Amino acid sequence: MLSLVSIFLVGLGFSLGVGTQQSESHPSLSWQNCSAKGSCQSVSGSIVLDSNWRWLHDSGTTNCYDGNEWSTDLCPDASTCDKNCYIEGADYSGTYGITSSGAQLKLGFVTKGSYSTNIGSRVYLLRDESHYQLFKLKNHEFTFTVDDSQLPCGLNGALYFVEMAEDGGAKPGAQYGMGYCDAQCPHDMKFITGEANVKDWKPQETDENAGNGHYGACCTEMDIWEANSQATAYTPHICSKTGIYRCEGTECGDNDANQRYNGVCDKDGCDFNSYRLGNKTFWGPGLTVDSNKAMIVVTQFTTSNNQDSGELSEIRRIYVQGGKTIQNSDTNVQGITTTNKITQAFCDETKVTFGDTNDFKAKGGFSGLSKSLESGAVLVLSLWDDHSVNMLWLDSTYPTDSAGKPGADRGPCAITSGDPKDVESQSPNASVTFSDIKFGPIDSTY
Ligand SMILES: *[C@@H]1O[C@H](CO)[C@@H](O)[C@H](O)[C@H]1NC(C)=O
Ligand SMILES: *[C@@H]1O[C@H](CO)[C@@H](O)[C@H](O)[C@H]1NC(C)=O
Ligand SMILES: *[C@@H]1O[C@H](CO)[C@@H](O)[C@H](O)[C@H]1NC(C)=O
Q1: What CATH number does the domain located at 17-441 have?
Q2: With a 6 A CB cut-off, is 331 part of the ligand 2 pocket?
Q3: Among 142, 218, 231, 258, which residue has the fewest nearby CB atoms (within 10 Å)?
């Protein structure tokens, strides 16, 4: 029986093996599943590191992938690569700077291990050893505590949901963090739907650890939290395809091919960033919501009929800090009807007022997102720096020559900030700490 199974998998060519140099032991992370206010049950989950960060080698210890290039001997094409290569377990704290304790997870920025220097990480919440935890967000709220005080301009401590497959889609599955996708249709994934992305692989000029392959990994993405100590945004992005979709050519919507709005995903999203929306004193160091200190972040996914099956109508934000409940800031921009939540109408107005393409609506908008959320989404926690545009879209003026224009000012960081080589050398000890994740019906978790 066992051998039949492995023959079958080899036959498909999707047979990336598991190495034995380092056993895979998932750091535990507990969270609370609430049914009503004051009534929550602890769930013992764990986290898993994305496959892209892991050591890939042959049956010995020769690298299949080194720096930002595939081995031409071991990986001349996808199926040879899949046959030759093995993926390793992770030393979470030693190599990747990831530590957890109880209900708290810390992601460190630069970690100098014995063999390599690691930059940032991306992890997923697991339900068990081989399945991601799925969350069905409609008519529910998702709550966590975050400490962004150790994140300078240019970094992004992110917590978000993507429509990945529950089992990771292909061997060796969720246990090794397989199957990532998001609304940027990233080309830097080493494996997509189980197949090595070696075709047309080009090392990224500005990133010694990453490259881009022929295919991209697309799926709907709900950014609950993208932030550093200076700026924050929450942003739905919708794709016209269900689940993970391996794109090729125009449908990837590549920026450098000038096809950003021709792909299957809405790359811009519909963001709510208080600073960008006219309140520069609401969120930040020493401000109404003080990013020098930990805060509780509540995000509610309201439906039109207050049922799980209803149409998604609003995405709301509430903060709790120092025992005080603080409603999200109101927009303060001429042309945008005053609101403190994301709705389809808010998205439509901001796109017009800011002169942005309404790709969010074009790719499905709220009704598309509503459908996507019914399948359940995987929780992602990550810390990253930005080799394309230095995170200026989050925390500075972007486009950089548009200061003062509607929608251009997103945060107080300088347009010269956020260059990865600067932040990596100047702030290696940066980190983000997420804790006390709670999920439940509206108003049950805070
Ligand atoms: C969370 O609680 C709900 C009932 O409120 C239950 O249906 C669901 O299975 C629970 N989820 C987990 C992961 O424990
Ligand atoms: C920013 O938000 C705070 C808290 O909601 C409010 O008191 C203040 O008036 C707002 N400022 C602007 C410019 O809207
Ligand atoms: C980072 O932390 C290490 C270990 O605690 C310390 O030796 C080093 O000086 C710190 N680096 C910076 C730039 O703060």
Answers
A1: 2.70.100.10
A2: no
A3: 258
